[in-house]
Amino acid sequence: MTGIAVIGTGQWGKNHARVYKELQQEGVVGVVKICDANESRVSELSEALGIEGMTDYRQILDDREIVAVSIITPSKTHYQIAREFMQAGKDVLIEKPMTMAIDEAKELIRIAQQNGRVLMVGHTFRYHPAVRELKRRIDGGALGEIQTMIGTRQTFGVPRKDMGVIYALGIHELDLFCYLTGLDYPENLLAATSHTYSQEVEETAVIFMDFGRAKGYAFESWLVPVLDKKRELVVVGSKMSALIDYLKPEELRLFDVRLVTHDGLPAYIENKDNQVVSLPYAEPLKEEIRCFISCVNSRRQPPSDGPVGLRAVVMVEAALESAKIGKAISFPFE
Ligand SMILES: NC(=O)c1ccc[n+]([C@@H]2O[C@H](COP(=O)([O-])OP(=O)(O)OC[C@H]3O[C@@H](n4cnc5c(N)ncnc54)[C@H](O)[C@@H]3O)[C@@H](O)[C@H]2O)c1
Predict the structure, then answer these.
(1) 52-109 pLDDT per residue, tens
(2) Which residues surround ligand 1 with Cβ inside 6 Å?
(3) Domain boundaries, the chain
């Protein structure tokens, strides 16, 4: 059975470790090992989960029990660590962002191809049950033509030091708006950022993405004191609209309400019906990891593969450039 190692067991990586432990108990994966450069962190978690821990990931490179790894170290280290594991013959799931440089993302795709490795990027919200249900309904035509997408991630917390809010949060909207529209890139995007405490790290960003008929608006911030955490997606379609509270993966709200026009001009609002679609609860991260294991076993490339990860990095870099120069950026951008 698939032996797994988790590299990096910080804030997010400890969730990977916990999920693999659950999947081990369910008989989905075999041995699970964890590694973190921080000794006390790894020893506490390995004791809590009852699994082997270590501080140097190089010990796992030629460990024959381990066939695949999750890499959840700081984003700037993803390239180096993923490269070493793929060259050592392991399949990799890298948390988003895949890398923090376009060239590095391209190089990882090349190494994966050269070595016949599964390369998956942790765009977790693609595995969110409500997002998947929404995508199914969009593709089936239930919402009509997508007109507007609004993504909001607001919280009040200490800003990260290793990346700004666009790499940390906005990347989800950049990826999801493409996923929902079925397009690789918008035609162009325009971003604006606020830097209150550091020139390197933006704490707030707005991003406008123009997909032609469909428009995407993202608002991301770590500095909104009135809310604990807000994670929301609104999609307005020509037939129906949808609302997802990402913190409730078991719920998709649909609104059968539209603006009726007369002679091409807005006339009145017609409200037919609102409904809550209840979905079986599933943790998005667990769904992501299940998908990874299934791809490792079947040698399929995952839905969020290297090229998806690369495009997200390209869009983040374009948004950062747009904010810097104060102008819209058109695609292709590289
Ligand atoms: N998909 C998502 O929704 C999601 C959510 C949160 C974070 N993330 C991503 O996960 C990654 C980690 O974020 P985090 O918030 O957990 O950061 P973190 O700083 O809390 O954890 C990173 C961990 O990596 C360890 N580490 C650093 N270098 C290492 C090395 N060479 N070998 C082994 N361990 C090493 C650190 O000691 C630390 O424990 C980031 O890339 C972030 O963008 C993704």
Answers:
(1) 999 999 999 999 999 999 999 999 999 999 999 999 999 999 999 999 999 999 999 9
(2) 7-13, 35-38, 41, 57, 72-75, 77, 95-96, 122, 124, 168
(3) 4-123+285-305, 126-284+314-330
Q: Order across the sheet with 188-194: list the strands.
A: 265-278, 251-262, 241-245, 229-237, 146-155, 214-221, 204-211, 188-194, 329-330
Q: Report the separation in Å between the CA atom of 75 and the middle of ligand 1, taken as the mean of its atom positions.
A: 7
For residues 272 and 255, is the Cβ–Cβ distance under 8 A?
no
- Which pTM does this prediction carry? 0.97
CATH tag for 4-123+285-305 (out of 1.10.1040.10, 3.40.50.720, 3.10.20.30, 1.20.1250.20)? 3.40.50.720
**Local structure of 24: helix, strand or coil:** helix
Q: What element of type H or E holds 68? A: strand 68-71
- Cα distance between residue 220 and residue 155, in whole Å: 9
pLDDT tens digits for range 4-48 = 999 999 999 999 999 999 999 999 999 999 999 999 999 999 999
Residue nearest ligand 1's atom 10 by CA? 72
Q: What span, in angstroms and rounded, lies between the C-alpha atoms of 120 and 94?
A: 6
CA–CA dist 157, 81 (Å, integer):
28
For residues 22-36, b (16+ Cβ closer than 10 Å) or e, as one string? bbbeeebbebbbbbb
